[in-house]
Amino acid sequence: MHPRLKAQLTETIYVAPMASVSAYGDRTFGTPVAMVAKVEDMNSVSTSPEGEEIRTTHSIFTEDQIEYSDRIWLPGDLQTDATLARKPINVAELRDYLGAVTHYETTV
Fold it and tell me: DSSP label at 86?
């Protein structure tokens, strides 16, 4: 990651990776891990192909990838409270002009 981009990652989020799925389809998650990020407020409403309304509230920029199956706690949220965890809606790899991944943008 370019030093100027890295300097903008001034906030801390917590990310818990999915650990397993039970026979009933219930997911369990690992311990939340701190990750530096830049978090921007964003309010957007779109419609899925099935006609469901999808609301997004934040864009999160990180050096490390966040998976769709992970759970995220924004700055200020208590990572021990699972009800505050957010699900990624979209995860994008952002690349430089040579095609190398520079950072990731996750929308929640």
Answer: B
CB 36 within 8 A of CB 1: no
- Digit-coded pLDDT (tens) for 52-69: 888 888 999 999 999 999
Q: What angle do CA 18, 6, 57 make, to 5 degrees?
A: 55
* H or E element that contains 44: strand 33-47
The sign of the CA dihedral 16, 17, 21, 24 is: positive
**What is the residue whose two structure tokens read 């030093």?**
3
pLDDT tens digit string along 33-59?
A: 999 999 999 888 888 888 888 888 899
pTM equals 0.86
Dihedral sign for Cα atoms in the order 74, 77, 82, 84:
negative
2 half-sphere exposure, CB direction, 13 A CA radius: 11
